[in-house]
Write a structure and sequence with these properties.
8% strand; 15 helices; Glutaredoxin; alpha/beta; 6-stranded mixed sheet; 2 domains; disordered N terminus; globular
Length: 363
């Protein structure tokens, strides 16, 4: 998922090389659920610090903005595991709620600016939005040409196995994406290009946005837990938090244990908290005493929530043991890793450690 959004945002930045001054976005309409051609970036964008600055989020209204984001995020984050059509339908509803919230707290001008940035981030695919096509007066033959370009890119993307990408197919896909960028210059006339630039407004380089995931769901601390120290995210604001879902009889989980212990020991007094969430997979893993014994045997010195009813698992939309999440000092999810950190030569531990060091330097 992260790779998908990184590519989408990067393409947006490349396409927006020269933009007109900030303009209105008349005729804006939310993306319909059946429109699978345009990347849905709105919910990602509103979490980025740079975008929030553009919208006028400041110390005076930040709490109100985030209070409204929380129920939206609580539905959006676990929706990533839904089928694509169901995910799009839910996203439509959440985008409408988001726009209403932004307008209520930040005003109409901020809402218009958010939609401009949304248009920018969608790159050439923004031309597959009906209201944009209508505003530009796209002719039927232009629409058909764009659709053919987009269809070719989508076809090539569908042929790539993300687990073992074929270099030749990746190269072909990259060429198709470059062709998308070029297609706007080839297909649009000068007047249409000027109209599009006015719709897009002042340039914001969306390729550099890093905080594009939601506020982390608050952890549900059950009556059964192991270890000392706070496990509620609200009590850990100002610290980077590493949350790992595991099951103590899962050998892939056990393979990560030394990393968790090392992180806890290395960063204990440096503003980093480690929290384990034991969600059961077997009958033994539903026994609080056995969970505690296994945690003690593993040498865990950090709190472990015994998620016996899968409440945290479901709230986070988790699908795999083990999974590690990185939450920044302001409570935003910044990264997650599924599976063994060093499986088949992977360097998940190093990626997380490098990210944590960067996050510790953030305000």
């Amino acid at each position: 998922m992260r790779n998908f959004w990184t590519v989408a945002l990067l393409i947006g930045a490349l396409w927006m090389a020269h933009l007109a001054p900030c303009a209105d976005t008349p005729g804006y309409a939310p993306l319909a659920a059946e429109n699978a051609r345009v990347p849905r970036t709105l919910l990602h964008l509103v979490h980025a610090l740079e975008v929030q600055n553009e919208l006028g989020v400041n110390d005076g209204n930040r709490a109100a903005v985030e209070q409204g984001l929380r129920p939206i995020d609580a539905a959006w984050w676990p929706s990533r595991i839904l089928a694509a059509d169901k995910q799009r339908q839910l996203t439509v509803d959440l985008e409408k709620k988001l726009a209403a919230h932004v307008e209520q707290i930040l005003g109409d001008q901020a809402t218009r600016r958010l939609h401009q940035i949304e248009y920018q981030s969608q790159a050439v695919r923004v031309l597959a939005r009906p209201e944009v096509a209508q505003r530009l007066g796209l002719k039927p033959d232009q629409v058909e040409r764009f659709n053919n370009v987009f269809a070719e890119t989508d076809r090539l993307a569908g042929e790539i196995d993300p687990r073992k990408p074929d270099p030749a197919k990746v190269q072909a896909l990259d060429a198709a994406k470059a062709n998308e960028l070029k297609s706007a210059d080839d297909i649009l006339d000068n007047e249409q290009q000027q109209t599009l630039q006015a719709l897009l407004g002042k340039k914001l380089d969306t390729s550099k946005l890093e905080r594009i995931y939601p506020l982390a769901p608050e952890l549900i601390v059950t009556a059964h837990r192991y270890g000392e120290g706070p496990a509620e995210l609200s009590k850990l604001k100002g610290q980077v938090v590493l949350i790992h879902f595991y099951a103590f009889q899962c050998h892939n989980c056990v393979a990560n244990f030394n990393h968790y212990k090392r992180w806890s020991e290395t960063w204990k007094n440096k503003g980093v908290a480690v929290i384990g969430i034991q969600t059961p997979e077997t009958a033994n893993e539903r026994d609080p005493q056995k969970i505690a014994e296994a945690a003690k045997q593993a040498g865990f010195q950090f709190p472990v929530i015994m998620d016996l009813e899968n409440k945290n698992w479901n709230a986070w939309g988790n699908t795999m043991w083990p999974t590690v999440y990185v939450v920044d000092k302001n409570g935003y999810i910044r990264f997650w890793w599924q599976g063994e950190l060093n499986w088949d030569g992977a360097t998940g531990d190093k990626k997380i450690e490098e990210l944590v060091e960067r996050l510790l330097k953030e305000a």
